[in-house]
Design a protein that fits this description.
A hairpin with a 2-residue loop joins strand 10 and strand 11. This protein folds into two domains: 133 residues, Jelly Rolls (Sandwich); 76 residues, Winged helix-like DNA-binding domain superfamily/Winged helix DNA-binding domain (Arc Repressor Mutant, subunit A, Orthogonal Bundle), CATH 1.10.10. The protein contains eight helices and eleven strands. By secondary structure, it is α+β, with helices and mostly antiparallel strands. The strands form three sheets. Strands 1-8-3-6 form a four-stranded antiparallel sheet. It has a four-stranded antiparallel sheet with strand order 2-7-4-5. A three-stranded antiparallel sheet has the order 9-11-10. 44% of the residues lie in helices and 23% in strands. Keywords: DNA-binding, Transcription, Transcription regulation. One of its GO terms (cellular component) is cytosol.
Length: 220
């Protein structure tokens, strides 16, 4: 299946092929760390398959998953713009995943040659700031139960392939991390959804059976 990356939409087929030819195919196993916060940023990653979790940490040791990226997305752009040239987050594969790693020098040369790529990068980073701002407001004004419902809906859309109910390969601990809750509390919320037939829980996975009911409970 052909993957369309948001960052490369302004390129011609020839330009896209030229850039991808420079890239290096990387594969990662489930739960494998792609990079750690603070690592040198030597490449931009274009996600070919699989989903990856973006996790940030504070000096206090507290940490949280702030996003889950799907095929067609990319990561590492912000690090290429930083003066210190280091990764700003830890990236982990939620399931087996593949990326195309584009050398920093090649991507920076592309931005210089094609201003529209730089504009696309700026727009994408702005969207991510808006998304994080929205998540911060949710933490302050939206109850944990609705945050759980909304993250499940977002993941269900990302994993839906049109062949059946979306199966999310995430653990309850990962979902708690993504919603700012504790595992026991998130487990109680999930058990309520199981009793209503909205979801099904298996080992390391959550199957969404009734998206309409989940959307209603999410207040969307």
């Amino acid at each position: 299946m052909r993957v369309e990356w948001h960052l490369l939409r302004s390129l011609t087929e020839a330009e896209r092929a030229e850039l991808l030819a420079i890239g290096r195919r990387r594969t990662f196993a489930r739960n494998e760390v792609v990079c750690h916060a603070g690592d040198p940023a030597d490449s931009l990653h274009l996600i070919v398959s699989g989903h990856l979790a973006i996790r940030v940490s504070l000096p206090s040791g507290d940490a949280a998953t702030i996003n889950v990226l799907a095929p067609g997305s990319s990561f590492g752009e912000l690090a290429l713009l930083r003066a210190d040239g280091t990764r700003t987050a830890t990236v982990t594969a939620i399931e087996a995943a593949e990326t195309m790693a584009i050398p920093a020098s090649a991507f920076q040369a592309l931005c210089s040659r094609k201003p529209e790529v730089q504009r696309a990068l700026s727009a994408m980073l702005a969207e991510r700031v808006d998304e994080l701002s929205h998540r911060l407001l949710e933490l302050s004004y939206v109850g944990l139960d609705r945050r759980v419902y909304r993250r499940l809906l977002e993941l269900a859309r990302s994993y839906h392939d049109g062949t059946g109910p979306p199966v999310l390969p995430i653990t309850q601990s990962q979902l708690a991390d993504l919603t700012g809750g504790t595992r026991p509390t998130v487990n109680q919320i999930l058990q309520g959804l199981v009793e209503r037939g909205t979801i099904e829980i298996g080992r390391g996975r959550i199957t969404v059976l009734d998206g309409k009911e989940l959307r209603r409970r999410a207040g969307l």
